[in-house]
């Protein structure tokens, strides 16, 4: 019983360590979104037309090139990555169980 609890605890820790880079990438994405919101607020408060035009151009630049990280251009590096990996693991576990029943 204790050995099984230790194994579950170790596996959970490894899964959290594996998911930490994706969580950090998700935080970077949310920071970029926060920057965009603060730029919009600054644009509403700006009285100078020239500076407002520059802020608007920069907002368009940010919107045209959103901050996204991906793994092999297939898996997004954000908060969804741990759930995607868990989904893949569970799916393949189901496949393994089904194929072992055939033989």
Entry keywords:
elongated, 3 helices, 103 residues, mainly alpha
Quick overview of this protein structure:
With 103 residues, the protein is mainly α. The protein has one domain.
Tally of strands: 2
Average pLDDT rating: 84
Number of helices: 3
What's the structural domain tally? 1
Q: Give the end-to-end Cα distance, rounded to a whole number of Å.
A: 31 Å
Which structural class do you get from the secondary structure elements? mainly alpha
Give the low-confidence spans: none
| Strands ordered across the widest β-sheet | 1-2
SSE succession: HHEEH
Strand content: under 5%
Instruction: Label the overall shape.
Output: elongated
- Major β-sheet profile: 2 strands, antiparallel
Q: What radius of gyration results from the CA coordinates? A: 22 Å
Helix content: over 70%
Describe the structure.
With 103 residues, this protein is mainly α. It has one domain (21-102). Helix content is 80%, strand content 4%. It has 3 helices and 2 strands, in the order ααββα. The protein is elongated, with a radius of gyration of 22 Å.
List the helices and strands and how they pair.
Elements: H1 2-45, H2 49-64, E1 70-71, E2 75-76, H3 81-102
Helix pairs in contact: 1-2
């Amino acid at each position: 019983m204790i050995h099984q609890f230790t194994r579950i605890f170790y596996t959970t820790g490894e899964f959290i360590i594996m998911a930490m880079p994706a969580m950090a990438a998700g935080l970077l994405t949310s920071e970029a979104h926060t920057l965009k919101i603060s730029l919009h607020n600054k644009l509403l408060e700006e009285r100078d037309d020239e500076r407002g035009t520059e802020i608007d151009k920069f907002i368009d630049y940010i919107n045209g090139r959103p901050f996204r990280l991906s793994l092999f251009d297939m898996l997004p590096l954000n908060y969804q990555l741990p759930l995607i990996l868990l989904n893949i693991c569970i799916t393949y576990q189901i496949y393994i169980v089904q194929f072992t029943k055939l033989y």
